[in-house]
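Protocol step 4 of 6: structure prediction from sequence.
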Amino acid sequence: MAVIEIRIELKKGVADPEGMNTKKTLESLGFEGIENVRTIKMFEVTLDMPADKAKETGEEMCKKLLANPVIQNFSINVR
């Protein structure tokens, strides 16, 4: 059994409206010194297979559904 953590984030240069709105709201609540807020999705998937196969499966999941390769990067960590 393997657990994979899939991290999906926008590529550099792609606008992150959710991150910008969160930054703006935090500042309106009085938080200071915030330079940037970025939105990152994290998925934790438990798979009944060896770690090396789990990483390959996670990559396929990202390519087919979880990530948009035009605007997002993904990374996979096997635990």
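Step 5 (inspection) to follow. The radius of gyration is 16 Å.
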